[in-house]
């Protein structure tokens, strides 16, 4: 089993280049295994998803509600408009994420747990 981490000498989230640098080190070491990268919050970059696809890796990256997806009708809309509400879930296969050119298609899974008092949890991820 391999564990690797890197402490960055800065405040705030890591950027795409820093994420790729860390992931390249571990992907090289365990390249003979199937690898799934789970990314939460700061690892929400669609560009990171594309890079992981190029590395033949599997991934699930949490996305911001403002991320655009292309609907079956060919119209882009933000993920927050997909109709996810407390107690529901969704799965969309092979959809375009982001309006930027050059990105392949991803699967999108979403789940919003039921509201419990003041707490709400909504998760949207691409893979």
Question: Can I get a quick summary?
Answer:
The chain is built from 2 helices and 7 strands.
List keywords for this structure.
alpha+beta; 127 residues
Description of the structure:
This protein is α+β, with helices and mostly antiparallel strands. The chain is 18% helix and 29% strand. The protein has a 5-stranded mixed sheet with strand order 1-2-7-6-5, covered by helices on one side. It has a two-stranded antiparallel ribbon with strand order 3-4. Helix 2 links the parallel strand 1 and strand 2 (58-62). The model has no long low-confidence stretch (mean pLDDT 79).
- Element order: H for helix, E for strand: HEHEEEEEE
Query: Please, how many helices?
Result: 2
Distance between the termini: 24 Å
Low-pLDDT residue spans: none
Query: What is the strand tally?
Result: 7
Return the structural class: alpha+beta
Task: Quote the beta fraction.
Answer: 25-35%
Describe the sheet with the most strands: 5 strands, mixed
Radius of gyration, in Å, reads: 16 Å
Strand order of the largest sheet: 1-2-7-6-5
The coarse overall form would be globular
Overall residue-averaged pLDDT value: 79
Helix content: 10-25%
């Amino acid at each position: 089993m391999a564990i690797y981490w890197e402490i960055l000498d800065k405040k705030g989230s890591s950027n795409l280049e820093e994420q790729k640098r860390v992931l390249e080190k571990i992907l090289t070491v365990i390249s003979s295994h199937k690898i799934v990268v789970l990314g939460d919050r700061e690892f929400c970059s669609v560009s990171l998803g594309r890079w992981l696809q190029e590395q033949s890796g599997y991934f699930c990256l949490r996305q911001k509600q403002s991320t655009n997806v292309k609907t079956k009708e060919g119209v882009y809309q933000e993920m927050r408009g997909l109709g996810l509400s407390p107690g529901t879930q969704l799965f969309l296969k092979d959809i375009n994420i982001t309006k930027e050119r050059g990105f392949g298609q991803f699967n999108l899974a979403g789940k919003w747990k039921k509201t419990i008092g003041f707490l709400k949890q909504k998760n949207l991820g691409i893979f």
